[in-house]
Specification:
The chain has 656 residues and is α/β, with parallel strands linked by helices. It folds into 3 domains: 285 residues, HUPs (Rossmann fold), CATH 3.40.50; 186 residues, Isoleucyl-tRNA Synthetase, Domain 1, CATH 1.10.730.10; 103 residues, OB fold (Dihydrolipoamide Acetyltransferase, E2P). The protein contains 22 helices and 25 strands. A hairpin with a 2-residue loop joins strand 20 and strand 21. Helix 12 crosses helix 16 and helix 13 packs across helix 16. It is globular. It binds ligand ME8. The site of ligand ME8 has 19 residues, from strand 1, helix 1, helix 7 and strand 11.
Length: 656
Amino acid sequence: MSKFYITTPIYYPSGDPHIGHCYTTVACDSIARYKRMQGFDVMFLTGTDEHGQKIEDKAREKGVTPQQYVDEIVEGFKKLWEFMGVEYDRYIRTTDDYHVEAIQKIFKALYDKGYIYKGEYKGKYCTPCESFWTDSQLDEKGCCPECHREVKEAAEEAYFFKMSPFADRIEKLLTETDYLRPKTRATELVNNFIKPGLEDLCVSRTSFTWGVPVTFDPKHVVYVWVDALFNYCTALGFMNDKYDDYDKYWPADIHMVAKDIMRFHAIIWPAMLMALDMPLPKHLAVHGWITFQNKKGEAEKMSKSLGNVVDPFMLGERYGVDAIRYHILREMALGADSAFSNEIMIKRINSDLANGFGNLVSRTVAMADKYFGGTLPVEREEKDPDSDLISVITSLRDKVDVCIDETRLKNALEEIFTAVDRANKYIDETEPWKLGKDESKRERLASVLYNLLESIRVISTLLSPFMPNTMPKVWEQIGAPAEVCSYENADKFGVLPADVTVHKGEILFPRIDMDKEIDELNKIIEANMAAAKAKLSAEELFTPEPVGEQIDIDEFAKADLRVALVKSCEKVKKSKKLLCLQLDDGMGGRQVVSGIAPWYAPEDLEGKKVIIVANLAPAELCGVESQGMILAADNPDGGAAVVFPDQSLPCGSKIR
Ligand code: ME8
């Protein structure tokens, strides 16, 4: 059995996953399912890229450890994949021990081979992208060429990876092979990065610690992109004992990524593999971004701060996961951006799924039921006036195969829906409702309905990798056992038994009431945008209170501030504002009452360390004794935000 290895990028757990992440993962899932159906031994890998300064900073902001922070977000990613019907074979987390150890060995191997050397880095650093840039690479405003945010001057001792030995081979890979898809992108890469001379890549950092330590120089951590890119190999067991299918699956057949990370996969990744004499992946499929189409019809980048992030859970719950899978795959051509709009989505679902395919199935099943009580008679008209439909159906599989092999999923779906249209047209041409009125046309009517059921069998088989939840329901309705709906049978006609029995079922894709839904979706978006704006403007409008009366150090020292762990927490009965916290203060424990219930649920605080004023005179609040208070800051939105100290500090630590 031939193998097939496909990967998504490993995503940064830096926030809730959105429809953009869904695109790559659902596209890879559909290809993986198609290849499994073809009989390939498939490995479909996805995962999360969990190291780096960005994660360290976010965790600090939230008052949790980086590991706690990523653990929580990774759960969100896994839930989304389950919800979206994504069946990956393996999930890698770069914080997994086996990966960390493998990266250390890989870094050492590159060093031992002389491709990594120690030097000093001076340059412009973009913190959000974790990338150093040369002056010539910055954008016209002198900002990061990728995210267009400000860069800062930075200098540090660092290890470098020699890129120049690989420049010629990489240029050939991009221009003379079909590694890069679409190939039109090769010119920009060659002109922007290779022609000006490939600069050596800075591959270690000393400015933060949340990363893989370099074994032979532990104040350095491995650059997050080296750590991340090798996931494609370590997840198979490369340089580790956790798995042992590297020899079986490597090289990857397809890495799929969006254009934002093309450079890393098209230049840096092949160079590192070349340095280790490893085989190169066969294809890099680069797609565009799903952008958000605003009210003026302009495409905006999806961003949390604009409030225009499209939530796949919300859409899937409203319209069905398969409809959403279909919509995003059908809209995006490989290489180009695709603007997400609720109108386009609803039109697409209504026209293709409700009116097109759904209607084909329901009309056919209803007619078989009405005219033959569900079971077709075996007597048929001998002559065959239906060769056009039959040839469209039997030639469909080959066309879809080509599109899948070239990672053109939009085109694959277009081919399938051309066949759906042909089958619907066949109903208009043959007018079964007229045949049904004429007893002498019974055999012809049976042939027509049989041909339609066969067309639906082939179409639904080929659609099943894209819409895996719905197609088994179609098979049930057309009376086709799942094993008959196989890839082998998808270029044949006449597979269903002549006396096939249909079963009327639920409506597969209910028609969506456009006006009503657009209204509701617009309300959701407007609320998100208003919330994002309010948050921004609250921050922008915030003016700190004037500084209070001066005190001297001895006066300050009178306040005894300590670290304490919230062991348990509950609401104070009869009060909307108060929470009662049981604390471990390292000195036998105490109870504190705090007026933060409007902003915190008890479980938000349990298990976290806070700061208390330990020598405050006890007081009674709503009849409950409070032995001190916990520190909180004013939030610009009018609320209170508890101050969380470094969570590794022991209970009772004094704050001065
Ligand atoms: O770049 N439209 O992770 P990331 C389409 N950790 N695709 C989108 C998208 C959008 N609006 N937004 C995100 C990283 N994506 C690195 C990758 S791989 C060794 C390391 C998808 O979480 C798209 O596939 O920023 C893009 O390449 C990926 O998410 C980037 O995800």
